[in-house]
Amino acid sequence: MRLRRQKPDSAGTNRRGGHTEPDVFADGVHDLPGSSADEAILEVRKLSVAYVIDAGFVMAVDRVDLDLGRGEFLGVVGESGCGKSTLLFGIAQLLSPPARIVGGSVNFHGKEIAGLSDKQLRHIRWREYSVVMQSAMNALNPVKTVAGQMRDVCKAHSDMSDDEIRQRSEEVLRLVSIDPVHLDSYPHQLSGGMRQRSMIAMALLFTPDLVIMDEPTSALDVVAQRSLMVQIKELQERLGFAVIFVTHDMSLISNFSDRLAVMYAGQIVELGDTRQLFDSPLHPYTQGLLEAFPSIRGPKRHLLGIPGQPPDLAKPPPGCPFAPRCPQVMAKCTTIEPPLLDVQEDLVRCLLYENGPPEALAANAPTPVEIQELPERLPAGSAAGPGEGTSQ
Amino acid sequence: MAVAGAELREAQAEVPVPGRRRAPRGGNLWRAVRHNHKATAGALLLLFFFVLAVFPGQIAPDSYASTNFTRALAPSGAHWLGTTALGQDIFSQLVYGTRESLIIAFAVGGLSTFISVIIGVSAAYLRGLVDGALSLFTDVLLVIPTFPLIILIAAYVRSAGLLTIIIVLGLLGWSYGARQLRSQVLSLRDRDFLESARVRGERSLYIIVVEVLPTMTSLIVASFLGAALYAVLTAAALQFVGLGDPNAQSWGTMLYWAENSEALGAGMPLWAIMPGVCVALLGASFALLNYAFDEISNPALRPVRKVMKAGLGGFDSGMTLDVVPGASPSRSRLGEER
Amino acid sequence: MRYIARRTAFFVFTLWAAVTVNFVIPRLMPGNPALAMIARYKHVTPAELASLEVLFGVKTHASLVSEYFEYLANISRGRFGISYTFFPETVSHEVLQAIPWTLCLVGVTTILAFLLGTLIGLVSAWRRGGWLDSILPPIFVITSAFPYFWIALLAVWLFSIKLNWLPLFGGYSIGDTPGWHWHFVVDALEHSILPASTILVTAIGGWILTMRNNVISVLDEDYVRMARAKGLKPWTVMWGYAGRNAILPNLTGFAMSLGFVVSGAILVEYVFNYPGVGWMLLDAVFNEDYPLMQALFLLITLAVLTAVLLADVVTALLDARTRDLV
After folding, report:
1. What CATH number corresponds to the domain at position B312?
2. Highest-confidence range of A6-15, B276-285, C285-294, by mean pLDDT?
3. pLDDT bucket at B300, cuts 50 / 70 / 90
4. How confident is the model at residue C34 (pLDDT cuts 50, 70, 90)?
5. Residue B309: pLDDT band by 50, 70, 90 thresholds?
6. Residue B287: which of C127, C142, C281 has the nearest Cβ?
7. Does any CB of chain B come closer than 8 Å to the CB of residue C55?
8. Number of CB pairs, chain A paired with chain C, less than 8 A apart
9. Which residue, A89, A328, A335, C100, is most buried by CB atoms nearer than 10 A?
């Protein structure tokens, strides 16, 4: 993937008043081996989305760079409020006031779509990229049947006859293992899982090249979640569309995504191959996230968390936004905004890697902070004796 | 066509940034009221009528009933709005009439709201049969057209004095508020803070008064304002058609006498129109305050100011920038909770 | 359709409640005015006298319960007694004369106000920030608080007296004979313009405001954003997605606002001396014609209840969720 370096601001200062140092890789573009730039169907450069309100503005998405290849499955993870959904809407041009794109570009299929009006976007919407939202109950019109909603889409983008529309609707429902008899049902008559799958079916009506998914599994129970993910992956491999999948559930996505992007405070702090990221996470935040997910197998251990809160995006701290919570924070972290650095095919936004790959730092790395989440001794009278205290 | 970052600074320059970032809770409400034009207008109007009601002697040149003057005079320096067919000064009548209208508005508003709180909250909180019965009662009263019913009752009572009007209107006007309050309490009932109060062992009455009611103040105030509006209009209407006490000193009664004397056709239009203007203005003040209250508690309804060129259609933004007033920076994560 | 069944049951129950209230009120009033009223009637047949007595509870030796059932029986047969004002005509006869006038005036304008108001509210909210949305809400907040009779008075003064464009009062010119000939129809229409406009102008404000607020909340919903994501044409979204969902609470609220419209219509008819049900009601009040008053009250209630039931049926047609409600 070709990724242009983030150039420092000409005045040497950034929006937050901190300082940027000259870029380590200032020699220009840096190619990642393994893929060719021609395959990128989506190129996002320095995309910034802000919520502009009376009293000022809030940068929900801060200069995000992203590439997506044909048929690639990209996961975007992060905690609540990190900007991942806003990023999604920013890419899909679905922002509503007071949010708006205030910088950067979104290049889809070689065309610039940031800032285009709904009218201008209409001919590529749904045909070339579609969206699946979090809650199907809220995303489907409650007073129209599934068939009616599919018909609306088909009529808006094609000259298909009613029969053809009906046929195609049945086809996409079968794709997601729903009996086409449910075409004439209303959303409230379907189960949660079925609703979600019919949303996905609707998204595939024109077999677009890109499907953007905003936490489509969050509203389901774990069993349904997994089965839905498997289905999505299957469809993706069969039909060849690319997916950007936003979720807060890192463990779920890790089995399905090709690459993973970790967001924090509106920025991408790590971006790389899923397996590699899981095996050796570089950014302290990613490490913290992975440590926070208990394993259902394996030995019991204390749950580790990340102390503190995400920053108030209206008053972001100077330097690295993660610095106040970072267990490996250095003095310069609070003054310098770290650029996105390329470390062994993994992009990391952390000053720890200024001078190269992590091996050099392994020896100096302090131990991560442990949080006692549960008492070591269970209260008197309970069945279990004193133990580790960690439980699911 | 990439959007440049400089655009944000440009947009920023056009959006006013107030000096203070965080204001105390009361200050927030005050600021909201001050900034909301409807609330200010409504409040000013109400204040104006209050002054008239409290100090009629100071403002009106003559008393309501004195018939010393020449009949049917046109407006002049001595009589700002002219005189009636019976020789009374119209302006003075209006001023003195304010008192009764305000009394009716607040008394009926208070009585109605009181009843609707009791019934609405009890129904929602006690559930079961009690709720079923109370809700049915409320719905029936809501659907039955109360104005003809009031006319019927007033007709039997003959001339309805102030107290009668207040009681009848108050006893019939609570159903809408009760319904609103009931659905609000129903939605609150299963919230965690109520559950925790129950678990603590608090009595139902305590929970209702201390935990539930404070969250519904805006609804109760809206209910009161609505009832006050309804009272002013209905009382005036009753008096206008002659069902009130013809000797009362009120705007409605003025209208009655004006209509009786064919004021419109006989060259005394102000006599017929001005009391109506007062009723309309007092009613408007309640309506404005009510609507403003809606807007203050639900920012989505506030007027949207366009800083740049307006776009057509619901959200076809292109290059527009919509500023939602009133949101404070501390609540900056607008909608982005995922 | 359990929903419709439930609403019909409510309809019947409320009607019964209104009928019972009608029965109870004269018996509660101090001084028993009915007695005095009945004494004023001359040349009444014994049967008619009997029904009047039942209507007003004069026969104190019969038990209340049996009186009640006799009363119900009379009502269901449409026997409301003799009208004092229109003696010796029966109340039913007179009421039937007035109904068409009110139906045409109030019925048509209410429906028109609802449809127009909803439409304007939808468009105004759709184009937030446009000129429509910045001037309409403040104006209509104020005008919706205006008393109907005052607007009527203004209209009369301005258009009839000052400008002399439209007739002053009545449903038709004095001396005309009612009938379905062209001249009369035109005359009637002329006479109805002012009252109709008064009702329309005052009633429409509420619809506009509530629809606007509904649409604004609906526009925030995910399915509207989804419709936009699908690239549907704005028209489709406005009608099928935003509009159709936003109108539902309005239909439910129809019942409550109907009460206001009814009171307004009564007053408008009064001011214009328009020979409809409302005017007749007030006229009956002045003549202390209690049988007529009571019958009119029941009639008005029946009309409102029917309108509410119709609104419920329309809601069920538009919204599948209500149909599936138990």
Report:
1. 1.10.3720.10
2. B276-285
3. low
4. low
5. very low
6. C142
7. no
8. 85
9. A89
Q: What would the mean pLDDT of C253-272 be, rounded to a whole number?
A: 83
**Both structure tokens of C261:** 């419209």
Interface contact A133-C226, CB threshold 8 A: yes
Chain B neighbors (3+ CB pairs < 8 Å): A, C
Angstrom distance (rounded) from CA B150 to CA A389: 71
Nearest CA-CA distance, residue B315 and chain A, Å: 7
A248-262, A376-390, B133-147, C190-204: segment of lowest average pLDDT: A376-390
Residues in A touching B325 (Cβ below 8 Å):
54
The percent helix, strand, coil of chain B (3-state, each to 5) is 65, 5, 30
Q: How far apart are CA A366 and CA B147, in angstroms?
A: 79
β-strands A341-343, A267-273 pairing: unpaired
Residue A259 is predicted with a pLDDT of 92
**For residues A130-149, average pLDDT:** 88
Structural domain tally of chain B?
1
CB contact under 8 A, B4 and A56: no
**Structural domain boundaries enclosing B169:** 25-319
Answer yes or no: do C226 and A131 touch at CB < 8 A.
yes
Determine what percent of chain A is predicted with pLDDT higher than 70.
79
| Strand pairing report for A242-247 and A210-214 | parallel
Average pLDDT over residues A152-175: 91
Instruction: Share the mean pLDDT of chain B.
Output: 72
Question: From the centroid of its chain, how far is CA A387?
Answer: 38
- List beta partners, residue A61: A49
Q: Is residue B145 part of a domain?
A: yes
Dump pLDDT digits (tens) for B120-144: 888 887 778 888 899 999 989 988 8
Structural domain spans, chain A: 1-117+210-380, 129-205
Q: Is B291 among the domain residues?
A: yes
The residues near B334 (Cβ < 8 Å, ≥ 6 apart) are A51, A53, A58, A98, A99, B327
- Smallest Cβ–Cβ distance between C245 and the set A131, A142, A186 belongs to A142
Q: The domain at A1-117+210-380 falls in which architecture?
A: 3-Layer(aba) Sandwich (3.40)
Which of A52, A80, A96 lies nearest to residue B15, judging by beta carbons? A52
**Contact across the interface for B329 and A134, Cβ inside 8 Å:** no
Which residue stretches of C77-181 are H helix?
A: 91-102, 108-126, 131-143, 148-155
Q: Report the residue of C8, C142, C252 to disrupt the B interface, i.e. the one with the largest count of B CBs within 10 Å.
A: C142
Are A279 and A344 spatial neighbours (Cβ–Cβ below 8 Å)?
A: no
Residues A142, C223: C-beta atoms closer than 8 Å: yes
Whether this prediction's pTM lies above 0.80 is answered by: no
Q: Residue B288 above 80 pLDDT?
A: yes
d(CA C125, nearest CA chain B) in Å? 8
CA distances, B199 to each of B194, B203, B204, B207, B263 (Å): 9, 10, 11, 11, 67
C126 touches chain A (CB under 8 A): no
For residue C276, the distance in angstroms to the closest alpha carbon of chain B comes to: 14
Confidence of residue B189 (pLDDT cuts 50, 70, 90): low
Is residue B330, in this structure, part of any structural domain at all?
Answer: no
